[in-house]
Amino acid sequence: MPPPPLLPRLPPTPPPSLRATERGAGAPPSRGAGRRRRRPALIAVARAKGKDEASFTERILDYIEGGPKLRRWYGAPDLLPKDGSAEDEEDESPDIEEPRDAVLVSDGNSEIGQLVILALILKRARIKALVKDKRSTEEAFGTYVECMVGDMEDKSFTKKALRGVRAVISPADNGFFSEPIDLKGVEHIVLLSQLAAYRNTGGLQAIMNSKLKKLAEKDEEVVVASGIPCTIIRTGSLQSTPGGERGFDFTEGIAAKGRISKEDAATICVEALDGIPRKTLIFEVANGDEKVVDWKAWFAEQIKGDEEIQ
Questions:
Q1: What is the mean pLDDT of residues 5-32?
Q2: pTM for the full model?
Q3: Rounded to whole angstroms, how far apart are CA atoms 164 and 261?
Q4: Which of 6, 112, 118, 202 could bond 244 through an S-S bridge, CB–CB 3.0 to 4.6 Å?
Q5: Residue 239: strand, helix, or coil
């Protein structure tokens, strides 16, 4: 029997009859009902070839657009009215203590950042994301994500962004940790790093990646020195290919020459949240032949082995 897919398959969007029931029997159609609803532009991800094998993006669109009943079935909140009330309420009470149950994604506008957000939504996580374009992100994800726009060097904004955050996922080598950031209260940092891949390039490619290499080196250095439990995932070259189709290779040195789907890399980042090391866990990964059925058990084994070596 083949292993289960890397991400759970979501049920299809409820039929029109269910949507009509949710609106209320006999309710007049809304203005523009004859028009076809446009789906938000998320990210360009390769579509699955088989009719019954929905891609990662198709499944998450079913989830987001499934209606109130499907959202409640998944434990997600109903969409809030577009009157700005939630945002205004937050601005009016900046000092209210929140439970630390949120995950902050440091680069919510990048392709890999959006894939991490989608994987977190499937995990029913409370999500905060640093973005440059708040409007497009809100159109794509609705109230599943709290969008934060600002400068992390601004202490007041940093305090607001990290309020209620228990973990930070940094999925892009953009120097997020290069500048001093007050991470007080954060319990876990997950850093996706392509440092090994950058170091293995030569010629013109090495020149083009020189800045990214320096940022990746700085991020790893700062994260390790922070004293906060951290998981550093050194991946092979990130590819815009469908995830869940291949296994993995965790051999030392594989990140320098291997490749991995961005969807798979995003999934590993999110699964890492369930395994918090005492200090630092660093491993390499690319797509390969090893199947991982239980990520929680896999991370627990890596953490135990790493602690025995230390």
A1: 44
A2: 0.70
A3: 31
A4: 6
A5: strand
Per-residue pLDDT tens digits for 210-259? 777 888 888 888 999 999 999 999 999 999 999 999 999 999 999 999 99
* Predicted confidence (pLDDT) per residue in 94-117, tens digit: 556 678 899 999 988 889 999 999
Reported as half-sphere exposure (CB side, CA atoms, 13 A), residue 228 has a value of: 24
Which pLDDT score, from 0 to 100, does residue 176 have? 85
Contact (CB, 8 A) for 114 and 42: yes
Structure tokens at 274: 């369930």
By C-alpha distance, which of 261, 263, 306, 300 is closest to 283? 306
Residue bearing tokens 């490619």: 205
Rg, Å, the chain Cα set: 20
Q: Taking the chain, what is the end-to-end CA distance rounded to the nearest angstrom?
A: 38
Which residues have C-beta within 8 Å of that of residue 230, sequence separation ≥ 6?
Answer: 188, 189, 190, 191, 223, 224, 277, 279, 280, 281
34 CB contacts (<8 Å, ≥6 apart)? none
Question: Which pLDDT does position 117 carry in this prediction?
Answer: 94
- The number of residues making up the chain comes to 310
| Position with higher pLDDT, 165 vs 80 | 165
Taking the CA atoms of residue 191, residue 123, residue 110 and residue 164 in that order, the dihedral angle to the nearest 10 degrees is: -70
Q: Which pLDDT band holds residue 62 (cuts at 50, 70, 90)?
A: low
- Average pLDDT (41-70) is 48
Encoded tokens for 198: 């950058």
CB atoms within 10 A of CB 231: 27
What is the separation of C-alpha 15 from the centre of its chain, rounded to a whole number of angstroms?
A: 29
Instruction: Give the Cα separation of 284 and 140 in Å (integer).
Output: 32
Burial (0-12, 13-18, 19+ Cβ within 10 Å), 224:
middle
The C-alpha atoms of residue 240 and residue 243 are separated, in whole angstroms, by 9
Taking the C-alpha atoms of residue 189 and residue 219, their distance in angstroms, rounded to an integer, is 11
| CA distance linking residue 169 with residue 118, whole number of Å | 13
